[in-house]
Specification:
The protein is of the alpha/beta class and 299 residues long. It has a single domain, classed as Nucleoside phosphorylase domain (Rossmann fold). It has seven helices and twelve strands. Strands 1, 2, 3, 4, 5, 6, 7, 8, 9, 10, 11 and 12 form a twelve-stranded mixed beta sheet that branches. It is globular, with a radius of gyration of 19 Å. Bound molecules: zinc ion (ZN). Zinc ion (ZN) binds next to α2.
Length: 299
């Protein structure tokens, strides 16, 4: 197992440009060849799991299981900063997130995919920025996902015969409990489309790290608001999870194949006008800690 950290820098044979973060139901990536497991050490601690770097469709890809293999880490326990920073240290330019979600609309059916173009943050107990400690930054987040990568994901779903919704709002709750009925009704009144517990935090950090971010939200079930909720069995939900994970593997492979080499977006320059503090006053320790994401602006 290789170890990568900020001071050692990147290794030439481990430079993936696409990162995949797999959620519930997707703990490993099928079809990766020439794989290497890498323990990435970050200034924010350890990622959820060793990252598997391998080749898919002729491209180097880094895969990370968000909850760890065997699903050991609660949404609120995930070290999101370490996960995203580790991707940055490996050289990742685009993150594809894969996440199980609940549906808040009748027309968004279990087994279908949705590529969110908006998030609503209802998390409570998370650190969702790399900044602070003497460096203030405010990145734009009005469009929280990468339009280019989102299009690739939606097109790849169509290509693989998976019904996909090309936009929608993902409300991110703290969890780990599911919603109450009252919360579910409010979420529906607010016109949210799907509900999950992880993605908005990742999206914020990816934007700060100048990495493109887009999500395949795999609809697993209707949230508790649906009249059929009580009659859905655990085995039905598990069958949908398994089918979704199989479809996600196909869609990911196609998305990696189809991903344009050149980014057609501004994600890679998100910090250009975001660093507010007079850089002469930023503590050395902070500059060192954030070298992978602010290095190009302070050199
Ligand atoms: Zn982008």
């Amino acid at each position: 197992m290789a170890v990568v950290n900020q001071s050692k820098g990147k290794r030439a044979n481990t430079e993936p440009s696409i990162g995949i973060i797999g959620g519930s139901g997707l703990y490993e990536m099928a079809g990766l060849t020439d794989t290497q497991e890498i323990r990435v050490k970050t200034p924010f601690g350890d990622p959820s799991e060793a990252i598997v770097v391998g080749t898919l469709e002729g491209k180097r890809v880094a895969f990370l299981a968000r909850h760890g293999r065997g699903h050991r880490i609660l949404p609120g326990e995930i070290n999101f900063r370490a996960n995203v920073y580790a991707m940055k240290l490996l050289g990742v330019k685009r993150i594809i997130s894969v996440s199980a979600v609940g549906s808040l609309l009748e027309d968004l059916r279990p087994g279908e995919f949705l590529v969110p173009d908006q998030f609503f943050d209802r998390t409570k107990n998370r650190t969702s920025t790399f900044f602070g400690e003497g460096l203030v930054a405010h990145v734009g987040f009005d469009k929280p996902t990468c339009g280019q990568v989102s299009s690739v994901l939606a097109d790849a779903s169509v290509h693989c015969g998976v019904k996909v919704h090309r936009r929608g709002t993902y409300v991110c709750i703290e969890g780990p409990q599911f919603s109450t009925l009252a919360e579910a009704h409010v979420h529906r009144q607010l016109k949210f489309d799907v509900i999950g517990m992880t993605n908005v935090t990742e999206a914020k950090l990816a934007r700060e790290a100048e990495i493109c971010y887009a999500t395949i939200a795999m609809i697993t079930d209707y949230d508790c608001w649906h009249p059929d909720h009580e009659s859905v069995t655990a085995s039905q939900i598990i069958a949908t999870l398994v089918q979704n994970a199989e479809n996600a593997q196909k869609v990911l492979r196609e998305a990696v194949r189809a991903m344009p080499e050149q980014p057609g977006c501004k994600c890679g320059a998100a910090l250009k006008h975001a660093l507010v503090t007079d850089l002469k006053l930023v503590p050395k320790a902070t500059k060192k800690k954030l070298a992978a994401i602010i290095g190009k602006y302070i050199s």
